[in-house]
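subagent[fold] <- orchestrator: predict structure for attached chain, return tokens only, no commentary.
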Amino acid sequence: MTRFRLRSRGIGVRSQVAIPAVGIVDFVVGTSMIIEVDGYETHSSKEQFEKDRERDRKAVELGYVVIRLTYHQVVHEWPDVEETILDLIRRREHLKPVVERKQLVSDDT
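subagent[fold] -> orchestrator:
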């Protein structure tokens, strides 16, 4: 549903993208916007909650903007969600450069 709605607005979106040090994310818009859509059933445990936040932290460290949505937001609050995404695109947040993990390691040494 998310992919269809974004594409219907002319927004290019890639699904199930593997990002080193982060893992597979639901969607990437442009070069640097990650959109994750989480259902309560699969993301309600403490372990999954912690894992999701760690992935977000790593993604932000690499330069990504992370938007984590719930099923409820996608289904019942889409106009607000869409406006947030469109606002970030208007500000070109989705086109910011990201760094590769190996650059982070070499820059620290």
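orchestrator: received. Logging for downstream: The longest strand covers residues 13-19. The chain has a mean pLDDT of 89.
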